[in-house]
Amino acid sequence: MTSRILQRMASSERRVYRGPYIRRDEGRHCATGTTTLATALVDHYRRAAGFESIVFVPEYGRQFIYELHAETEAALGRPVGPADLVWLPEHFARIARQQNALENAAALACPLVIADTDALATELWERRYLGSTSPETALFGTTELPRRDVYLVTDHAGVAFEKDGWRDGDHIRAQMTGWFIEELTRRGHSWVLLSGSHDERMRYAVRLIDALWARGSTFASPDWADRTRLPENTEVSRSTRRAVVPPATDLLS
């Protein structure tokens, strides 16, 4: 239901979480067109100057469910389905941890990061399947969550439900979209709801990302710049012309 966009400039991070996001973190999924949009956005920006090294940040939960499925079949000695899988809090914590790691690795490759999902979404899926979110999973979705600029929430309306044997039923999509918007708002994250056709969502997402990137690439003096002064006891080295000043708290009047 959401994707994430990240910008890393110099030593600072600016992440934009964008793209619709298919709620596909923990194995069963709720399709809203997120992966389709996130993939298209990565392809779009890979053709743009400066973003040739951009990489798609996939949903680790999808890989994890395949691993859990194989382990369960090996343990039981017979074919198994989604209902046979046993989910534990440590599974969701592992998914959230790895999702953050994939996101940070992508940020080292390119200053713009677009992710299919994230650790915050993993928190909500744990709540969905286990009734609550464990402290460790919550840590990766809050304190350890990489900084981002915006979430692109993909509206489930108008997106046909695709049954693939793992996704939750069509009835859960509206509830999960509501949970996600509620949690993003409560935590103070920036987000936009993308509706309409894929092309309409794509055009709006590109305009938004371009605008955010342009704003983040503009250098200007901070609001307090004209109020900064050096104390009278400041020592100045004539050889380097650099000011040696007391603690920064003494510089602002």
From TrEMBL:
Q: Which domain of life is it from?
A: Bacteria
Q: Which InterPro entries match?
A: NadR/Ttd14_AAA_dom (IPR038727), P-loop_NTPase (IPR027417)
What are the NadR/Ttd14 AAA domain coordinates in residue numbering?
Answer: 32-201
Q: Which organism is it from?
A: Orlajensenia flava
Protein's recorded name: NadR/Ttd14 AAA domain-containing protein
